[in-house]
Amino acid sequence: MATREQRHEEILRTAARMFAVSGFHGVSIDELGAELGISGPAIYRYFPSKEAILSAMLVDISERLYAGARERVAANDTAEHRLDALIEFHVEFALADPDLIAVQYRDLGSMPERERRTVRRLQREYVDEWVAVLQELYPKVSEQTARSSAHAAFGLLNSTPYTGRAGVTDLADLLRTMVAAALAAGCSTDEPASRR
Questions:
Q1: What digits encode the pLDDT tens for the residues 151-183?
Q2: With left for phi above 0 and alpha for psi between -120 and 50, is residue 111 left, alpha or beta?
Q3: 86 close to 114: Cβ distance less than 8 angstroms
Q4: What is the set of domains in the chain, with CATH numbers?
């Protein structure tokens, strides 16, 4: 028999998959329960509402991304290695959790305001880790350009819920190569043309 924690995780995984396909508003609590093999109301033993399920999954992934970025930055001793580690980390996330990417993109606005602010703060802190590394690696790049470059890289990486089904043999290598090249191109735009 599953423990409470295991059931909690199972609900979050199943909800993420269903929300990614049908949207938060397109999945009823009864449909979610049926997919889990329990009644819809039985879910309320684990979460007080459907909004609480959405909040738990999106706050959790935002916390994990930020913590993971900090760990990888701290574990590497050069800016180049830190950037490689950040890219590798986000590639792994994008390929492992495309459902969460799709849910966050489409359904973040359905979260209660307090939890939505928490997610936005964690997202900013995650981006800040990338910006600091980019400015260390490319000393002439402005914070604004580094931030814009990081967001563009996330756009590429977070497209995997849609491109991951394209049948590329080694999508992880492709993504790593493309993101590194995009960041290098973006962060060199602030340098004088004679130095490029």
A1: 999 999 998 766 655 555 688 898 999 999 999
A2: beta
A3: no
A4: 50-190 (1.10.357.10)
